[in-house]
Amino acid sequence: MANTDSARKRIRQIEKRTARNRARKSRVRTFLRKVEQAIAAGDKGAAQEAFRAAQPELQRAATKGVMHDNTVARKLSRLTARIKSIAASA
């Protein structure tokens, strides 16, 4: 256990940051799930709308350091390709 005041403060800060990051990551997963469901349903309009809502959340996660920049770029790229393919198959 931490003995110094500064170490105790760091523990408090880490707990707050962890909770914030966990909430942000959960929020991103929720937005991604909505896009995935729209794609699975084959509804291009709903998928595009969900993607437009998810995009800023993903970018924010990258900015805040919750997710790596390249991870976000990869996810966005793959989702975009999958949404485009709905039109091609429909």
Report the sheet with the most strands, covering strand number, pairing sense and barrel closure: none
Number of strands: 0
Given as residue ranges, the uncertain stretches (5+ residues, pLDDT < 50) are none
Structural class: mainly alpha
Radius of gyration: 18 Å
Integer average pLDDT: 94
Helix content: over 70%
Q: Total number of helical segments?
A: 3
Task: Output the helix-strand order.
Answer: HHH
Give the amount of beta strand, in percent.
under 5%
Architecture overview:
It is a single chain. By secondary structure, this protein is mainly α. Helices cover 87% and strands 0% of the residues. It has three helices and no strands. The chain has helices spanning 5-41, 44-63, 69-89. α1 packs antiparallel against α2 (44-63) and α2 runs antiparallel to α3. The radius of gyration is 18 Å and the shape is elongated. The termini are far apart.
